[in-house]
Amino acid sequence: MTTCLALRHLAFEDAGLLGDLLAARGVDVSYVDAGVDSLDAGAWGAVDLAVVLGGPIGVYEVDEYPFLDGEVAMLRARLAARRPTLGICLGAQLMAAALGACVAPGPAKEIGYAPLTFTEAGRRSVLAPLDGVDVLHWHGDNLDLPDGAERLAFTRTCPVQAFTVGAHALGLQFHIETEPVQFERWLIGHAVELAKAGLAPSALRAQAARSGAATAAAGRRVLGDWLARVLA
Length: 232
Hints:
- The structure is a single chain.
- By secondary structure, this protein is α/β, with parallel strands linked by helices.
- It has helices at about 15-25, 40-45, 65-80, 90-100, 120-125, 185-190, 190-195, 200-230, and strands at about 5-10, 30-35, 50, 85-90, 105-115, 115-120, 135-145, 150-155, 160-165, 170.
- The protein has an 8-stranded mixed beta sheet. Strands 5-7 form a two-stranded antiparallel ribbon.
- The radius of gyration is 16 Å and the shape is globular.
């Protein structure tokens, strides 16, 4: 039986539609809650697929959130073993840090639905269905491209929006896993961040109404294709 562990930093930032895609393949997602559940190195090393999800903290905030060191160490070992790994938002940043790249605050927060620009490698990758599609951005930190990784996408304020490491690891700074019907949970859970950024929930809700369904449809294609490759 194929096994999947998902490292979750916020209850409402879960695997989303990725969970449905895995269920269709007969794979159950077991969640490990960051800072609460222990990181069993043996379990993470043995699992067929590891998914590291998003959250509102920074990779570099280890003094305030010491468990981040364990997450980076777990990812370092897993990536060195070339085991299938997906990182989303904070998860991608943790992957980059595990590979020795710098993660730091970017010049501006990116929050809301907007398109990506793809590299040539990105256009040939599993991300191709996202070309011309708005994706959900919700981050303030940027990452440098790790040594040995290939950049797939970028935006004006974020030079590395997606990267791949070999055929086994994919890091996404943006969100394509979010189910549109669950988006209200994001607006509630991130209310303080939105207020500090001067962003109205009503404006983001309108963006989700316009773009959420198309984003989810393209996201299913991307994630489904990637799963087919790494879990073949």
